[in-house]
Amino acid sequence: MANKLTSDNRTRSSVSIFIVFGLCCFFYLLGAWQRSGFGKGDSIALEMTKSGAECNILPNLNFETHHSSDAGIVDDDSKVKAIKPCHPRYTDYTPCQDQRRAMTFPRENMNYRERHCPPQGEKLHCLIPAPKGYVTPFPWPKSRDYVPYANAPYKSLTVEKAIQNWIQYEGNVFRFPGGGTQFPQGADKYIDQLASVIPIENGTVRTALDTGCGVASWGAYLWKRKVIAMSFAPRDSHEAQVQFALERGVPAVIGVLGTVKMPYPSKAFDMAHCSRCLIPWGANDGMYMMEVDRVLRPGGYWVLSGPPINWKVNYKSWQRPKEELEEEQRKIEEIAKLLCWEKKSEKGETAIWQKRVNADSCRRSQETLCKSSDADNVWYKKMEACVTPFAGPNSDEVSGELKTFPERLYSIPPRIASGSVPGVSVEMYLEDNKIWKKHVNAYKRFNKIIDLGRYRNIMDMNAGLGGFAAALESSKLWVMNVVPTLAEKNTLGVVYERGLIGIYHNWCEGFSTYPRTYDLIHANGVFSLYKDRCDIEDILLEMDRILRPEGAVIIRDEVDVLMKVKKIVGGIRWDNKMMDHEDGPLVPEKILVAVKQYWVVGDSNSTSSR
Predict the structure, then answer these.
(1) Which SUPFAM superfamilies does this UniProt record tie to the protein (predicted)?
(2) pLDDT tens column, 567-579
(3) How many beta carbons lie within 10 A of that of residue 363, not counting itself?
């Protein structure tokens, strides 16, 4: 079969490559020798052969540290504590969505499917192993359609969703035909239908939210139209649906609309979507629709596909009482009117509403407005049945004034232009962009494959204004911009106004994703930020959990902090090297670059009992 994986059984010695060639060459060889589903090195190997002579350490990027007596401590491998692999049963462990722990919480309003992280005493202190046979995913766009079976060996969806064209099992790969419950004929035709109403093609719609995404085919097929979707679904009976999404190279997190607010800022998305997502939109006084309204940009669109839309025709095939469906749609229409959403279309089983652009076009009752003065303060905050005002009480921000994409990426975001982000001026924003272009250019010099397609899923653990992601912007990759809840400035709204995506998170806890879902992780100042807040080892173990075998890490921080990080990294099977700042050895900020070694279940006889 043409689409079957080719196996590469050649012996690899990451450590010897690292010693002989230096880390910049190691990154190149990694691209050629990775245990990959798309051949034995392919174009990257050819490029490496052509450019091998150029694989040198740049003169101003000194691999030796320049902090005298401390350097010896960093390189003292005899003091490194080797962290053992976890038991094989933890191969797909998600610490804050652990199934056993989830069942101890109430089922009302999906509370048990929300984040419930283990206390410090119950955290795993071991390395999550990859399953036997694990291979590097196919490159985009082939990964959209094919996922190696060994990476997520779960066949239940191939049976449960067979007639809906979600996923098919073929030999040693899963194939994703692009179908969905509401679009069994394919996502492309479905998106064409939406595009007849929504301006998807011209850059007006750039960021989208897919609630209850399944295997994220909607988001996967939006990508070629330059729309980036943040997809989420719970870890539930549809085993591994978010894992499949990320293996395909589509942005996704484990999540649910339950009792707490979504971890996204207000006015973030140009479009929100539910395709038979089973969310009870009319329940709890419209609380879930009000939460979608909070994150929907003025002028944005909400798409509801499936029950109860067009219930008069479909109630028999849905096997539900028509009175129940009629009441369900009545509630949705009533809440949409309260939110000042204008219904633009209802065709077949799909309805589309548009949020009004500003308060002048929508006279909302003061009694329904949320009392909170900060619609972006959402981490573990309870969801409320109230309507988010168009603009904050202390802001002259003009709602909805965004450029089309890609101009949006480097234009002045409305939040900054209006002074809505305390401590961030237009001048600071422009300077930040210059700094990150410089940093990313330096990264590209020592990791020459960073933008060649080897890294599809990238995470920035402390995204700031999104400068790193903007400097990397490419159709070959996407960046999950994380704004830590401890960050001094809440900048995630700015990230979205640039046409990028991201999420709030506290790095003292596990991230809402499966193991091995990111190809490259960037951490700027993360360990200084969390100093004395939580254990460095815990953060590194979480990074290791979500990083793919042979994935790369770039950590930028103060030298004293990086020395502590480097010592722990030596015990978690990462080949690593400390480098000077691109401006030279006198700058106290340094860079630690690393690559996770390839290993799977059974590669070590010594495992943790946890």
Answers:
(1) S-adenosyl-L-methionine-dependent methyltransferases
(2) 999 999 999 999 9
(3) 9
